[in-house]
TrEMBL record:
Catalyzes the formation of methylglyoxal from dihydroxyacetone phosphate. Keywords: Lyase. Its EC number is 4.2.3.3. The active site is at D74 (proton donor/acceptor). One of its GO terms (cellular component) is cytosol. This is Methylglyoxal synthase. Coiled coil: none annotated. It catalyses: dihydroxyacetone phosphate = methylglyoxal + phosphate.
Length: 154
């Protein structure tokens, strides 16, 4: 990537996992989360508004809830990613329905790519991520070197 340099960050063994689902995909996310409850219980969970409430009710696990996605919850999660306060994004988005907040969704996925965090967009990819040995250990990964960017040392 031209114009920005990179540095290393360390992701802790206990991950901060953001969970998001469009309305038509909430049942898929809830079913998946119930199957993966034991693994999810080992990590900190956060979610957009309605999804977070539903996950907490279904799993009985603590879930930090943002506001609803269309009201700014996607942007709240994006800010957390940029602040390096989210380690993984599980986002079951609906590929069949246009969303009124599509720009927010695109921005959330973009910031996840910029900050090099793992993203799962469906049950299969989420299963693969949770089954990775990296889920249970700390590891280093590449992120933008923002202090170097600010100082002009790109």
């Amino acid at each position: 990537m031209i114009g920005i340099s990179f540095t290393q960050a360390s992701m802790a063994a206990r991950k901060r996992i953001a969970l998001v689902a469009h309305d038509h995909c909430k049942s898929f996310l809830l079913d998946w989360a119930e199957r993966q409850k034991d693994k999810l219980a080992e990590h900190a969970l956060l979610a957009t508004g309605t999804t977070g409430q539903l996950l907490h009710q279904r799993l009985g696990l603590p879930v930090e809830s943002m506001i609803s996605g269309p009201l700014g919850g996607d942007q709240q999660l994006g800010a957390r990613i940029a602040e390096q306060r989210v380690d993984m994004l599980v986002f079951f988005w609906d590929p069949f329905e246009p969303q009124p907040h599509d720009p927010d969704i695109k921005a959330l996925l973009r910031v996840a790519a910029v900050w090099n965090i793992p993203v799962a967009c469906n049950e299969c990819s989420a299963d693969y991520l949770l089954s990775s040995p990296l889920m249970e250990q700390a590891h280093s990964y590449r992120i933008p070197d923002y202090p170097a960017y600010l100082s002009g040392r790109r």
